[in-house]
Amino acid sequence: MRSRTNPPGGRTRIPTVRDEAKDQRVRAALPRLALGAVSGVLAGVAALAVAELVAVAVRPQSSPVVAVGGAAIDAAPAAVKDWAIRHFGTGDKLALQSGILAVLTVLALVSGALAVRFRRAAAAGTLLLGAVGAAAAVGRPDSTGLTDAVPSVAGAVAGALLLYVLAGRLAVVRRSPAPTPAPGPVTGEGGDGPPADAGWDRRGFVVAAASAAAASAVLGATGRSLNASRGQNAVVSRRTVVLPSPGSPAPPVPEGAGLRVAGIGPFVTPNKDFYRVDTALVVPKVDATAWRLRIHGTGVSRPATYSFDDLLRRDLTERDITLTCVSNEVGGPYVGNARWIGVRLAGLLAECGVRPPSRGGPADQLVARSVDGMTIGSPVEDVMDGRDALLALGMNGEPLPFEHGFPVRMVVPGLYGYVSACKWIEDIELTTFDSYDPYWVRRGWSRRAPVKTESRIDTPKPFARPRAGLVMIAGVAWAQHRGIDKVEVRVDDGPWQEARLAAEDTRDTWRQWSLPWQATEGGHTLTVRATDRTGAVQTDERTRTIPDGASGRHSVVVTVD
Q: Are 170 and 36 within 8 A, CB to CB?
């Protein structure tokens, strides 16, 4: 037997039968606590599987992970969103969902361990988490009502019941105590000893846990499969779209608009490489045959509703337009150029009786609403000033990809996406800036946001190690709706050197540039700046993306060997 010291007297005490019984109980409890934690995870998985399956009957966006994730995006300060985009890029949604699942896993482990002793309280905690998911689902901007709470509630009930059952299998069953010897010199005390036999339902736990795991796997797989199949009508509707020849086709891209320089991207960004920054955790899949667009609001004398076929039958316009995200840092990747085809937005608005403020119209803001509840506000004057503002139906020769807004999205050259590029659009309301703040404005971003004059070095890359001799410095510059007039590059603190500009497509597209450099050995800093057609030179003052886009000059550091 182990000896124990009694600190006050400094004497060694012989362990008693009660001490040994206590140690045995602790050792016996550890495996049950571990299995309790496993029970919590199994209950959590079951809850999510049931919720996923029930969401099939409601809508995919009512799934608790999606709903909580959307609520987290809505509640996050603008600086946090900006940080997420900067560090995770287009993988920010996956990072958020992974984080939510990690938190749920920790809570499930703790809840399961507690359920070994307090299974009613632990089951109640699971129901509380379900209430959080239900509240998040009902509180989403695109919520269809209380039915959105059903998946979270159903999942929570299933998880709570399973946790209660599994924890019950771990409960110790005590039998009548066995007699113990009278007091003697070894034990030092007498009385009733520990229970003669104490145990828990091992076989019952294993059967219940295995059954729960198998059922959760089947339910989860079924739910995902059915949710995926829900979008089949949308997939079929997109597949059957045939984009007609535009009445106003885009001019051919000039020869020489795309430079043949290693390290610089193509002039036209492929759809698969085009940046995607939005708040949709689940990409909406909208059936084009059922889609409708409503135009209404202040100054709309003839409100109208259009179908997708209505737009396809109209005279379509095709244009090359570069889009830029306001979350793009100086030198960042969230800018892309594509050939868009669609309906001129100004024409539709004029048909509805809308006049811009410069012609006496009462509305100065156009609020576009997406099927997922997003609201984006654009200046009516900009949309109707003659620029190629489109309700786009196609991108680079094919119907819009789902990720980029199928069946219809807005494209307005010269404005950052958060004030112009509404994807999955279904409603346009004419109003005023004073009477309504759209989604991003309520979160600290500016109401108006023309794209700033910017440029980027694409090659050489930061911290590259080119060899001494001729090195080609190249990149892109953009100032949509103003156009790029000049690009200059500086090596270290030397003079600005004018780069060679590639041929210009239109003032609404980016422009590639290049400069041959006789590189000498050592470390060097390369800096670029652009000048737009108004004569404005890209500022060297660094600002954050909030509230109306980043500014500053892009630099890269290289070491020439």
A: yes
